[in-house]
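Lab manual, section 2.4: Encoding a predicted structure.

Procedure: take the sequence of the chain (178 residues), apply the prediction step described in section 2.3, and record the output as structure tokens. A sample record is shown.
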Amino acid sequence: MELGAGTGYWARLLYERGVDVIAYDRWPPPSPENPFHGPSAPWYPVQAGDEQVVEHHLDRTLLLVWPTWNEAWPAGAVARFHAAGGRCLVIVGEGPGGLTGDTVFHALLGARGPCLACHLGVDDSPCVCAVRPLWQLVRSVELVRWAGADDACSVYERIDGSQRRRRRTHRACLGSTT
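Recorded output:
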């Protein structure tokens, strides 16, 4: 399940490779409300939905491609997916300090630098000192990149406190569909 799918480009690529994909975006194309794709035609059918739809697709892998920088919805989506029992998460984007997600999002993924609010005094950044990671990285795949982009495709599995459970999930995560 791709969330924040925009025009459905990644969903289309996966579909063409035999993956059963469901794509959602808050403002599916064509939509003048979406500043990223506006009136563009979709590559793949994209349904209207926000981070709440992840709770209805727990049997799927959650895919976020370039989750919006400094917005709360990506962190909300990965937290909701974990709380509801989701097992596998794939993120295409940049790490902490990059142009995808916010500090809470990266903290939930277990990837963070110093807390911008506490250690650097950044007023418009939330404190992430007490944010417990919900996901652990199990694989990262280098991508062909646009000039100036530092992104990768990263596969995460849920952290649930049981090492035996995590090992089973790891195998299931790498073999599941989006």
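Check your result against the sample. DSSP finds four helices and seven strands in the chain.
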